[in-house]
Amino acid sequence: MSRAIKVEDQVYQELDLIKEKGETFSQVIERLLEARLKMFETLSMVEGVLRYQEWKQKKLLAAIREEQAVKSG
After folding, report:
1. What is the mean pLDDT of residues 8-21?
2. Quick check: is 27 in a domain?
Protein backbone atom coordinates (compact mmCIF):
# COMPACT_ATOMS: atom_id res chain seq x y z
CA MET A 1 0.00 0.00 0.00
CA SER A 2 1.40 3.38 -0.90
CA ARG A 3 0.65 6.79 0.55
CA ALA A 4 1.20 10.25 -0.79
CA ILE A 5 3.13 12.73 1.34
CA LYS A 6 3.71 16.41 0.82
CA VAL A 7 7.25 17.76 0.97
CA GLU A 8 8.53 21.25 0.44
CA ASP A 9 10.32 21.98 -2.83
CA GLN A 10 13.70 22.22 -1.11
CA VAL A 11 13.21 18.82 0.54
CA TYR A 12 12.21 17.29 -2.80
CA GLN A 13 15.31 18.76 -4.45
CA GLU A 14 17.58 17.43 -1.69
CA LEU A 15 16.02 13.97 -1.91
CA ASP A 16 16.38 14.08 -5.68
CA LEU A 17 20.08 14.95 -5.31
CA ILE A 18 20.82 11.92 -3.14
CA LYS A 19 18.55 9.57 -5.07
CA GLU A 20 20.54 6.92 -6.87
CA LYS A 21 19.78 5.82 -10.41
CA GLY A 22 16.73 3.56 -10.48
CA GLU A 23 15.90 4.28 -6.85
CA THR A 24 12.44 5.44 -5.82
CA PHE A 25 11.85 8.26 -3.37
CA SER A 26 10.44 5.68 -0.99
CA GLN A 27 13.74 3.79 -1.16
CA VAL A 28 15.68 7.01 -0.56
CA ILE A 29 13.65 7.73 2.55
CA GLU A 30 14.02 4.13 3.73
CA ARG A 31 17.80 4.35 3.23
CA LEU A 32 17.94 7.59 5.21
CA LEU A 33 15.89 6.09 8.03
CA GLU A 34 18.18 3.05 8.16
CA ALA A 35 21.22 5.33 8.30
CA ARG A 36 19.59 7.30 11.12
CA LEU A 37 18.99 4.10 13.09
CA LYS A 38 22.59 2.99 12.58
CA MET A 39 23.79 6.40 13.72
CA PHE A 40 21.74 6.18 16.92
CA GLU A 41 23.00 2.64 17.56
CA THR A 42 26.59 3.84 17.10
CA LEU A 43 26.06 6.81 19.39
CA SER A 44 24.58 4.52 22.01
CA MET A 45 27.63 2.24 21.82
CA VAL A 46 29.98 5.24 22.08
CA GLU A 47 28.05 6.50 25.09
CA GLY A 48 28.40 3.08 26.72
CA VAL A 49 32.14 3.01 26.09
CA LEU A 50 32.55 6.52 27.51
CA ARG A 51 30.54 5.65 30.62
CA TYR A 52 32.63 2.51 31.11
CA GLN A 53 35.87 4.47 30.74
CA GLU A 54 34.62 7.05 33.24
CA TRP A 55 33.69 4.29 35.70
CA LYS A 56 37.07 2.60 35.20
CA GLN A 57 38.91 5.88 35.77
CA LYS A 58 36.97 6.57 38.99
CA LYS A 59 37.70 3.05 40.22
CA LEU A 60 41.42 3.47 39.45
CA LEU A 61 41.56 6.85 41.20
CA ALA A 62 39.82 5.38 44.24
CA ALA A 63 42.36 2.53 44.34
CA ILE A 64 45.26 4.99 44.09
CA ARG A 65 43.84 7.13 46.91
CA GLU A 66 43.31 4.05 49.06
CA GLU A 67 46.88 2.91 48.44
CA GLN A 68 48.22 6.38 49.29
CA ALA A 69 46.16 6.41 52.51
CA VAL A 70 47.58 3.03 53.52
CA LYS A 71 51.15 4.17 52.82
CA SER A 72 50.73 7.44 54.71
CA GLY A 73 48.89 6.13 57.58
Report:
1. 97
2. yes
